[in-house]
Amino acid sequence: MEDCIFCKIINQEIPSYKVYEDEKVYAFLDITQVTKGHTLVIPKKHVSDIFEYDEQLATDLFTRIPKIARALETAFPEMEGLNIVNNNKEVAYQTVFHSHVHLIPRYSKKDDFSLHFGKHMEDYTQEQMQAIANQIQKQVKSNE
Questions:
Q1: 3, 60, 75, 88: which could join 49 in a potential S-S bond, CB 3.0 to 4.6 Å?
Q2: Looking at the 3D structure of the chain, how many domains does it have?
Q3: Domain HIT spans what residues (predicted)?
């Protein structure tokens, strides 16, 4: 895509701090470095978000993530954990519309990064939960 910053990085039109590359995937340091080693993993094929993936593209990208995660763990033995984050669409905080996965090393609970999952167990009855599950299952089956 012509105006995509990540496509320009893949094509070496814009410099990056590459940590991994093969024929399908490119991984490089995020310039924001939420924590040391914060890495972005992107498909070389331009897709805006997860909703544009086919099964092969998902396989190509997501099978590389454990390899890169282990490399981070080995490179930074002081790392205590890792967040894997994938934002899709603007409302979900996606700001670059070339699909990418953040690997964010965690060194302590004091890192300047957080995810908040509110507790909403009381908001739905068992019947409502089952109806939601059924609705999703129906769509999974129709998309096979």
A1: 88
A2: 1
A3: 5-115
